[in-house]
Amino acid sequence: MTTGKLQPNTNTFYFITFTCFEWISLFEITDLYNYIYECFDHLELQKIYTCGYVIMPNHLHMLVYMAHTEKP
């Protein structure tokens, strides 16, 4: 189940993790790795900086820093 919540805090770190449905290796099957790296670049344009990450065939963990922005 997906959940979402507005995060008003800036200048702080967040740990983000998600898995594929039933642990299916979708990242590997669809060769999604390059797209994930492109997403990291897009996040940086939004002043969300990737500090560390682990990409597995079926899940992802990442530590991001959200810099001060005017948008929540």
Brief sketch in words of this structure:
The chain has 2 helices and 3 strands, in the order E-H-H-E-E.
| Basic shape | globular
Total domain units: 1
The value of Rg in angstroms is 13 Å
Name the beta content range: 25-35%
In the predicted model, the low-confidence regions spanning at least 5 consecutive residues are none
Strand and helix order: EHHEE
Mean pLDDT rating: 87
Strand order of the largest sheet: 1-3-2
Oligomer: single chain
SS elements, strand count: 3
Tell me about the biggest sheet? 3 strands, antiparallel
Q: Structural class of the secondary elements? A: alpha+beta
Task: Give me the number of helical elements.
Answer: 2
Q: Helical content, roughly? A: 10-25%
Q: Termini, distance in Å?
A: 23 Å
Would you write up a description of this structure?
The protein has one domain (12-66). It has a three-stranded antiparallel β-sheet, with helices on one face. The radius of gyration is 13 Å and the shape is globular. Helix content is 24%, strand content 33%. With 72 residues, the protein is an alpha+beta fold. It starts with 11 loop residues before the first strand and ends in a 6-residue tail after the last strand. It has helices at 26-29, 33-45; strands at 12-19, 48-55, 59-66.
